[in-house]
Specification:
Length: 271
């Protein structure tokens, strides 16, 4: 696969709501989810229609009571395209010395032996199933294919990319386990990663430890009461990250930013 086609770079502003989340239905990192409640417009996890009840009670509560989580259900063509590209990528990785991209594990042995990730059948084509089962890379069960976490991540990467191409969205993940691979393949847009990190750092300056102690019920209530402020904060983060002052003087820009930053962060710190 041509690395130059992996990530779409769009002109203009990157909206925090144009985000396809992968590889799982819901983030494993609770702190990431708490930060998302504080500064993201929304993100779209890839969840087939008939699997949207297979989420945790907390995740369902956030989905039902806020505008943060908007599940995306892949269609047949999404699965076909992702399957074809995943097969090509897996064959390429297994033919080359790519162990350094996966924490120096023996990739061939890992994909042959580990079965700790489920890819639901709604997401892949028959060709992908045959490829995995015929090459001892996966086991079919009633729900889909059991494969290694590495193989599952690669497939979900391609599925997320197919959806992002179709919807003009960007890809986001909280999975840090395969950073070497995601960085090498340039799976995430660098400018988006910087924006997310900047927002997290600004909030984290005020809440380096406390956010772990804040209950989700309170965060949900806070988000719903301050959603307009969160959207404005997100827009300002974008301007800071891209140095877009839009004709204002530096002083005027910083003054506006300090006002919105101070108001939102003071509210977060207070509650």
């Amino acid at each position: 696969m041509d690395k130059g086609t992996i990530i779409k770079i769009y002109c203009g502003v990157i909206k925090m709501k144009d985000l396809i989340y992968f590889p799982s239905f819901e983030p494993a990192n609770e702190k990431w989810l708490k930060f998302a409640l504080l500064y993201m417009d929304e993100f779209q996890p890839i969840i087939p229609y008939n699997r949207q009840d297979d989420i945790s009670p907390l995740y369902k509560q956030i989905k039902d009571s806020t505008n943060l989580i908007k599940p995306y259900s892949p269609d047949y063509q999404d699965g076909v395209n992702a399957s074809k590209k995943s097969i090509n990528k897996i064959e390429e990785l297994l033919k080359t010395n790519s162990n350094h991209l996966f924490n120096y594990k023996n990739l061939q042995r890992t994909m042959n032996d580990d079965r700790n990730y489920l890819i639901y059948s709604d997401k892949f084509s028959n060709d992908f199933e045959y490829f995995c089962t015929n090459n001892n890379l996966g086991i079919k069960n009633d729900d889909g294919l059991l494969v290694s976490e590495e193989l599952g991540f690669i497939f979900m990467q391609h599925l997320a990319q197919e959806i992002s191409y179709k919807t003009n969205s960007f890809i986001i993940t909280d999975n840090q386990k395969f950073n070497n691979y995601t960085n090498f393949e340039r799976i995430e847009t660098p400018s988006l990663k910087k924006k997310v990190k900047l927002a997290e750092n600004i909030i984290d300056l005020k809440l380096p430890q406390n956010i772990n102690k804040i209950e989700f019920d309170k965060l949900i209530k806070f988000r719903n009461e301050n959603i307009k402020l969160i959207k404005i904060f997100s827009e300002h983060i974008q301007k800071i990250q891209q140095h877009e002052i839009n004709g204002k003087t530096s002083y005027g820009f910083i003054k506006d930013y300090n006002e919105i930053y101070s108001e939102l962060i003071s509210k977060i710190a207070f509650f």
